[in-house]
Design brief:
184 residues; alpha/beta; Rossmann fold; 6-stranded parallel sheet; 39% helix; globular; binds flavin mononucleotide
Length: 184
């Protein structure tokens, strides 16, 4: 008799998409983690601030797999079935460190055939609208399915205070997005 064991990964990983320490992105990730916990989802936060400082030189290309501290984050990505990317707008796009991190995940990527929701944040008016479009192109190229409902939080200083979203419409949209992601 042949017994097939299938592994189902049910973890949702919430990615803090910058390596800036004490980032607002981390606070939004924690806010999102609460939303998902209330929906009975299993979550973990992957903070790019925990990337080794030298990873671009020691974990990519011919050094792929050689940096244990980078591999730890890579394995956390592997364990996840779905992702939430919390993406700060940096110079009209997403942070370069996120692209470098993705480049270190190899090809075919750890992202292949998985699913993600995107949240953009900014101090200015856009809420990372362009950043999310740029990132969606790359994630789709790597075979990851992006949830259509992308949430933007512009004017962070006004709209995100003491770990909470103050704008009722954004609050509604992000709660809807979390529910859609769980069902996605
Ligand atoms: C390098 C850098 C570039 C930034 N570029 C923009 C930008 O183009 N537009 C904008 O509205 N805010 C910009 N910001 C502000 C961030 O989007 C904003 O502070 C965001 O709420 C949180 O970023 P954090 O996760 O690094 O704290 C920039 C911040 C940094 C550090």
């Amino acid at each position: 008799m042949i017994v097939t064991i299938q592994l189902y990964f049910r973890m949702i990983a919430i990615i803090v998409s910058t390596n800036r320490h004490h980032s607002k992105s981390k606070q939004v990730a924690q806010f999102y983690q609460n939303l998902l916990t209330n929906l009975n989802a299993e979550t973990q936060i992957i903070d790019l601030a925990e990337l080794p400082d030298d990873f671009a030189r020691t974990a990519l290309y011919e050094n792929n797999g050689k940096n244990e501290n980078f591999n730890r984050l890579k394995y956390q990505m592997r364990e996840a079935e779905k992702f939430v990317f919390v993406v700060p707008e940096y110079n009209g796009s997403f942070p370069g460190v996120l692209k470098t991190f993705i480049d270190g995940l190899g090809y075919p990527s750890e992202l292949l055939h998985k699913k993600a929701a995107l949240v953009g944040i900014s101090d200015g008016v856009q809420g990372g609208a362009l950043a999310l479009s740029h990132l969606t192109d790359i994630l789709n190229y790597l075979g990851l399915n992006v949830l259509a409902q992308r949430v933007k939080i512009p004017f962070m200083k006004k709209n995100f205070v003491e770990g909470e979203i103050t704008d009722p419409l954004i609050n509604k949209l992000i709660a809807e997005q979390a529910e859609l992601l769980v069902k996605f």
